[in-house]
Amino acid sequence: MTQVRKVLVAEDSSVIINLTKNVLMFENYHITAVKNGKQVLEKLAKEDFDLILMDINMPEMDGIECTTAIRALENPNKANIPIVAITGNYKNYTMDDFKKAGLNDYVQKPLDYDHLLATVKKHLS
């Protein structure tokens, strides 16, 4: 039996969270959703995840700041988790900006769910 992969979705839009959950749960991923970067760090302190989908623009702590904090964690499994940016403002950033922040990849909004799923599978294979 294959293990269920756990994906943490950090996104402040309930619509995007619900659509993302539906797409990923159909592929048997276990989804946990939070609304900001502080909640990501709280969840990560208590649980292990296989991948994080990280919105860049969130209240309280944005995706770049949160990713930087994750990469600084002492636990190497948590510090090296694949993180995929979700952003509608991708033109404000280059892939170099994302890589410098520690992000592994990005998916732009509006989300193409086939591309999102392919990106998740790429980082979890």
UniProtKB/TrEMBL annotation:
Keyword Iron-sulfur: no
SUPFAM superfamilies linked: CheY-like
4-aspartylphosphate carried by residues: 55
Molecular functions per Gene Ontology: protein histidine kinase activity
Enzyme kind, highest EC tier: transferase
GO process annotations (BP): phosphorelay signal transduction system
Keyword entries, A-Z: Kinase, Phosphoprotein, Transferase, Two-component regulatory system
Enzyme Commission number(s) of this protein: 2.7.13.3
Domain Response regulatory, chain residue ranges per copy: 6-124
Record Pfam families: Response_reg
UniProt-recorded name of the protein: CAI-1 autoinducer sensor kinase/phosphatase CqsS
Species annotation: Cecembia lonarensis (strain CCUG 58316 / KCTC 22772 / LW9)
Gene transcribed to yield this protein: cqsS
